[in-house]
Amino acid sequence: MKQKNQKFIPLNKRSKREQKEYHAGQRRDWGATNPMTRKAPNPKIYNRKKSKRRLFEHEPSLDFLCTS
């Protein structure tokens, strides 16, 4: 529908290509915003990963096994 004098054709009667062009024109991009939603972690709940990280950070050294 490039010309002004053409008769109106409903969207469902148009060809697939014209429908695709129409819908592509209706969509917008996200620009600089990231569509991924994020939220801050709740400090009151138990975090299993955090407790395991503490365990492995303070792992005792295994030097006492190397005595000969």
Molecular structure report:
- The structure is a single chain.
- This protein is mostly helical and 68 residues long.
- Helices cover 31% and strands 0% of the residues.
- The protein contains two helices and no strands.
- It has helices at residues 16-26, 48-57.
- The chain is rod-shaped and about 75 Å long.
Low-confidence stretches: none
State the helix count.
Answer: 2
Supply the helix-strand structural class: mainly alpha
Mean pLDDT: 79
The tally of strands reads: 0
Percentage beta strand? under 5%
Q: Percent helix among the residues? A: 25-40%
Major sheet details: none
Shape by Cα distribution: rod-shaped
Listing every helix as H and every strand as E from the N terminus to the C terminus, the arrangement reads: HH
Q: What is Rg?
A: 31 Å
Please give the alpha-carbon distance between the first and last residues. 88 Å
